[in-house]
Specification:
The complex is a heterodimer of chains A (about 160) and B (about 375). Chain A is an alpha+beta fold. Chain A has helices spanning about 10, 25-35, 55-60, 65-75, 95-100, 100-105, 120-130, 145-155; strands at about 40-45, 50-55, 110-115, 130-135, 140-145. Chain B has 17 helices and no strands. The chains are: A alpha+beta (about 160), B mainly alpha (about 375).
Chain lengths: ~160, ~375
């Protein structure tokens, strides 16, 4: 079977960890450390996908501009790229509970439909330079597909890994 | 290397590149081959094409709705007032000096531009934050687009005046030219939309983006339309219809600094140092009345949109810097009007150096006065 023609739904993980917009920064980092997932889908109670959050989003709290302004600055001609986060920013313990996922969520993310092919998923991953993408059906999150999931599937197909 | 060195002693990047261009240009060391100098027209159109395409992205309907009325009103009016005030002053000056008035229109249009890089540099350096900073960054992000639109209109008007007949036919012709440029840009965006689904790598994204911009410039020049308007329309439609449009804008951002560097060096090399003394009065008028226009525009824009007293009083200080887009318009004028274009070009280049040195100080003063530094 040509894996590239398989639907994403066959290969994706269905039980990936998620967070909600009201998850605190402290809890988010705990989830990332515990699960080793550095890209988490942000969903509402009914599983509607709102965006994604990753460690790059967390870095935004160290940047001088708000996220919307940062996006504008990134597009300006003649402006030199400057990842000017200041890691010496004064942080207080309260920020762990005051900063919420809603403050750092990336809403201009890429996603893929569950009936799309693995070929299309790989194309999107390469184009956007990402290794994990949320899988949706009717705007609701149904799973997550990563490059590792694709590799694991191939290895299982060739008996390099055993299926559980 | 030279630019890096000059920047170490806090010289603005644009001024540093211009100086390098002047030094290696034909007036001093003559290190640039004449064939490259002769290609200035193509380089200008191509670099301005990239800028115009990128500026078109700021007209994403979703973002514009989110930004709200004040950004639109203030950016349009500060750019338009600078354009109108400088044009009127320059027309009067040209009449008094008994020289043709058509270059005055292009000079006025260049006055609409600002320098986002200088403003961002000040905001970053002093970690300014607050409503005035926020509004300032949003305004400088889109006012260069207005400048390019005004320039296209000014060039059409100037060409009509140059011919000496300004009848209704000329006006209809000018409107048709604008519409055709928009249609051409829109059509290319549809073409890009169709091709997007076949793109499989980031390298292809860059090749296709550059190829389409060159095609837009080439077709516009071939059909005697404005390459600026064509590329703004192209970028605008791409941003609004292509789902993965950000890929194209990001890909261009990866290479644009190299192109801009080459562009500024070429601008410096094109500068006729010999006629600098001639631009004295004209340059002084341009410097003063461009700023006057900006202040008037911000006041009116803030009043109409209810942006508040702090923005109304202090935002215009951040709009004083002038750089790349104005230089691009000036270089276009130089190649369009060989006789008087030289004067426009030298005036804009000389004033850009002054604005680049004084502008950041003005921006800092305004943000400090606004209580955001």
């Amino acid at each position: 079977m040509d894996i590239e023609k398989l639907p994403v739904a066959t290969v994706m993980r269905r039980n990936a960890p998620t967070v909600s917009p009201s998850t605190t920064l402290q809890h988010l980092i705990e989830i990332m450390c515990k699960t080793n997932h550095y890209m988490l889908p942000v969903v509402e109670d009914d599983s509607t996908l709102l965006g994604i959050v990753n460690y790059r989003g967390i870095l935004n709290i160290f940047r001088p501009f708000s996220r919307s302004v940062s996006e504008i600055v990134e597009r300006m001609p003649f402006v030199e790229k400057n990842d000017d986060e200041d890691l010496n920013l004064e942080l207080s313990p309260e920020m762990g509970t005051l900063i919420l996922v809603a403050d750092i969520v990336n809403t201009s993310f890429v996603s893929i439909k569950e009936d799309s092919t693995i070929r299309e998923a790989r194309r999107i991953m390469r184009l956007h330079n990402v290794e994990t993408i949320p899988v949706v059906s009717d705007k609701k999150l149904v799973g997550v597909l990563s490059l590792l999931d694709i590799l694991v599937y191939i290895f299982k197909e060739h008996d390099i890994l055993t299926s559980e | 290397m030279g630019a890096k060195l000059l920047r170490r002693i806090h010289f603005p990047a644009v001024t540093a590149y211009l100086l390098v261009g002047i030094i290696i240009g034909p007036r001093i060391f003559n290190l640039i081959p004449s064939r490259l100098m002769a290609a200035s027209d193509f380089v200008t159109n191509f670099v301005l094409g990239i800028i115009a395409f990128a500026l078109g992205a700021n007209f994403k309907l979703k973002d514009l709705k989110a930004a709200g009325k004040p950004v639109i009103w203030i950016s349009v009016l500060e750019a338009a007032c600078a354009w109108v005030v400088v044009t009127v002053v320059m027309v009067v000056y040209h009449i008094l000096q008994k020289i043709p008035i058509h270059p005055a229109f292009v000079l006025g249009a260049a006055a609409a531009a600002t320098a986002p890089a200088a403003t961002v540099m000040v905001v970053r350096e002093y970690r300014a934050s607050g409503p005035v900073t926020d509004m300032l960054l949003r305004v400088v992000a889109i006012d260069d687009a207005w400048c390019l639109i005004f320039s296209a209109l000014a060039i059409t008007t100037a060409s009509a005046l140059r011919v000496g007949v300004f009848s209704s036919t000329v006006l209809i012709h000018a409107v048709a030219e604008v519409c055709l440029a928009l249609i051409l840009g829109g059509s290319l965006a549809v073409g890009l939309y169709v091709i997007t689904r076949f793109i499989a790598s980031t390298d292809e994204v860059l090749i296709i983006a550059v190829g389409f911009i060159m095609l837009a410039v080439g077709l516009a020049v071939r059909f005697k339309l404005s390459p600026l308007l064509t590329n703004i329309a192209f970028g605008l439609v791409v941003a609004n219809i292509v789902r993965e449009s950000e890929l194209f804008f990001k890909a261009l951002r990866r290479v644009d600094m190299v192109l801009f560097l080459g562009f500024f060096v070429l601008v410096g090399a094109n500068l006729e140092i010999g006629i600098l003394p001639q631009v004295g009065v004209m340059g002084a008028l341009y410097i003063i009345f461009r700023v006057v226009g900006k202040f008037i525009g911000v006041r009116i824009g803030a009043h109409i949109s209810g942006a508040g007293a702090n923005i109304s009083r202090n935002l215009a200080w951040g709009l004083v810097p002038q750089a790349g887009v104005a230089l691009g318009v000036a270089l276009s004028a130089k190649t369009l009007y060989p006789k008087y274009g030289e004067l426009i070009f030298t005036t804009i280049t000389a004033t850009t150096v002054i604005y680049e040195l004084v502008g950041p100080l003005c921006a800092k003063y305004g943000l400090k006065k606004a209580g955001e530094i």
